[in-house]
Design brief:
alpha+beta, three-stranded antiparallel β-sheet, 1 helix, 3 strands
Amino acid sequence: MDVNNDSKLDIVVLAEYITGSGREGTMPQSALGLYINRDGTFINNKKMCDDMFMKDVTDIRDIKPQ
C-alpha cells in the first residue's frame, strides 16, 4: 500500500491484541505501525501513524493515502 502517494509501496501493520487476563486485561487493544519506503529503506513515520490511529483505523481498508 502506498500511503503517502510517492509511488513506492509502504508497510502497514494493523494488529489487535489482549494484554493479559482479568476483566480489563482481556479487552482488545489496537496497534498501528507505519513504515514509509525511502529508496528501499523503511522508516517509521510516527506522526502519520498517530494521525491514522486517532481516526480510529480498525481495518486496512480504512487507511487512505495522505
